[in-house]
Write a structure and sequence with these properties.
Blueprint: H1 14-24, H2 27-37, E1 44-47, H3 56-61, E2 65-70, H4 73-83, E3 89-94, H5 102-105, E4 113-119, H6 128-137, E5 139-150, H7 158-162, H8 171-180, E6 184-191, H9 195-205, H10 213-221, H11 223-232, E7 240-246
Parallel strand pairs: 1-2, 1-4, 2-3, 4-5
Antiparallel strand pairs: 5-7, 6-7
């Protein structure tokens, strides 16, 4: 399937919120994702697109110096309500990575972060290379960025449409986007091979609009097995693709 050309921005993200709330209960899956990110993190951390804090929670409880962000004010409010009593949370703020005057809008955080991560965010942005280039401006000289996005355009289905995904990626296309944004690619691999059959069944064949909560609960229970599967497959296939790059 070709790329979707445009979506209308919605502050009230009903499908997205329902998906985040479903995933919020998948503690093993969220911790698995955190454990993929954390080895690359250092110093002052910035999360792009924190949502309701499913992964943020693990950075908070593990005492990382972190700033949380989202483009939607109501998500930022939820993050403040949830984490404001933690001293290692620097702030929660609204950031638009494709703002027309990015450097003038966010001068106080340019060249500020040692590590930036964005999980399932870049695929929502039509001008994804501009977003990555602006993320680079927030990094310190030796800073790194960790990007996770949906993998394989052939898997694009009803879930992607409902979640406003412009595209899915593979290692080559994600590395290309990072390189075009001026970042230096360091490592790329796939994540969560076991998620592919469910994505095809529920989003492709059955055309569900939201990931079924019962499916998520079952998947969460089986995460220890799925982690082993990724290792057996040497992370050469997955529902998501990850690239780590530096400034």
């Amino acid at each position: 399937m070709t790329e979707i050309k445009s979506f209308d921005y919605k502050e009230d993200d009903v499908e997205g919120l329902a998906t985040l709330e479903s995933i919020a209960n998948a503690d093993k899956l969220n911790e698995w994702m955190y454990n993929e990110v954390a080895p690359y993190a250092s110093g002052r951390v910035l999360e792009i697109g924190s949502g309701i804090g499913n992964i943020s929670k693990f950075f908070i409880i593990n005492n990382w110096d972190i700033t949380l962000t989202d483009i939607r004010d109501h998500y930022c409010d939820k993050l403040r309500d949830r984490f404001s009593d933690h001293s290692n949370l620097r702030e929660v703020r609204n950031i638009d990575l494709v703002h027309a005057n990015f450097e003038n809008e966010y001068p106080d955080i340019l060249n500020s972060f040692d590590f930036i991560f964005a999980l399932n965010v870049v695929e929502h942005i039509e001008e994804h290379e501009l977003a990555l280039a602006n993320a680079k401006k927030l990094l310190t000289k030796e800073g790194k960025v960790f990007i996770l996005v949906p993998a394989f355009q052939t898997l694009y289905n009803q879930f992607d449409k409902e979640l406003y995904h412009y595209r899915r990626y593979n290692k080559k296309s994600l590395r290309s986007a990072m390189s075009n944004a001026g970042l230096t690619n360091q490592k790329s691999f796939y994540f969560n091979a076991a998620g592919i059959p469910g994505w095809i069944l529920f989003g492709g064949i059955l055309k569900h609009k939201i990931i079924p909560s019962e499916q998520m609960k079952l998947f969460n229970k089986l995460v220890p097995i799925f982690k082993i599967l990724d290792k057996v497959l040497f992370k050469k296939i997955g529902l998501s693709v990850i690239t780590v790059a530096s400034k």
